[in-house]
Amino acid sequence: MPRGSSPKRERQYEHIKESAEERGASAKRAKEIASRTVNKERARAGESATASKVSTRDPKSASQRGGERSHSGAQGPTKDQLYEEAKKRNIEGRSSMNKQQLRKALGR
Prior knowledge:
By secondary structure, this protein is mainly α.
């Protein structure tokens, strides 16, 4: 944590770090996750001297997003995420589609 951080941000950092460790992240990875999350929250709240455009313009905070973008790796979004997108787009027959079919219907 940067010097001069508020007690709230210190508590937030510790909570996120402990939570990540409980989920099986290494101590180093847990610290990185906590630091990035808290720094982004500080930037959004105007508590940091510098902030990226992404940090300040993202409509959802990292805590609100809750890992929405975390499934963009090798296998891409989960079936549930694809289904929710298909629901938003009102795609017919989505409830009986498998992951591959949902991807195709969404044009992915």
